[in-house]
Amino acid sequence: MILLLFFAPDDSIPPFEQMLVESYILSTHEGHYRWKMQADTIYDYGRTYMVYGLRLWFYEGDRVSSTIVADSGLMDKNTRNMRAMGKVLVTTYDSIRLSTGVLIWDDRRERIFTDDTVEIVQGDRILRGIGFESDPSLEHIIIRRQVYGEGRERISR
Fold this sequence. Notes:
mainly beta; lipopolysaccharide transport protein A fold; 9-stranded antiparallel sheet; 9 strands
């Protein structure tokens, strides 16, 4: 997905079709949540939503497996793929935290990924690297390059 938005010199918001405040977007399968997105503000640009104050909950069955909080994001309405941007923080149900500057959700593959730097923290253990892919619950993590870790034990469940 490529979205080009050009802002006026006064940083005004480009024309949009609709603006939603304190809104939710839900994705379900067979009556169960897959994910739920909440935003402070959503701007509707036809095929794309621009989101500010992004909060995203991923579900496994009836429980939340992880959350993403980000300054802003984009969502393609057709594919439901999302890009979280700014200060991005993922927290799992068992308190593993991942931070990065950009994180992409591939809805069809049900994977999160980035080419940006990442830091994963679990207790006193820290793992850093560049390039990352995982399921939303951070159970199957791949860090692509420049992997560095600190701590006494492996990050595990």
